[in-house]
Write a structure and sequence with these properties.
It is a single chain. By secondary structure, this protein is mainly alpha-helical. It has four helices and no strands. The chain is 73% helix and 0% strand. It is globular, with a radius of gyration of 15 Å.
């Protein structure tokens, strides 16, 4: 179990502020697992709503990383 649920939730909420620290290798690893044809994403909702919502969050962070990597170089040019 999570020792400090409040701290865990805060960490999840603030993760986007630290997206610049995520590596491509980490994203590739997560993406490989999420795109695995044997992984039944919809089935996860039936098994555990908490795990399903963490997966939704994880997918959102992968998208955020993708956008960050496209936008950040453009911001530096301005």
């Amino acid at each position: 179990m999570i020792a400090n649920p409040s701290s865990f939730i805060t960490t999840l909420k603030d993760f986007g502020k630290r997206i610049h620290k995520v590596t491509k290798r980490q994203i590739d690893s997560v993406t490989d697992r999420l795109n695995n044809k044997d992984f039944e994403f919809d089935r996860m909702q039936e098994i555990s709503s908490a795990a399903y919502n963490l997966l939704l969050w994880l997918k959102a962070m992968v998208k955020l990383y993708t956008v960050y990597k496209e936008v950040e170089p453009l911001k530096k040019k301005v």
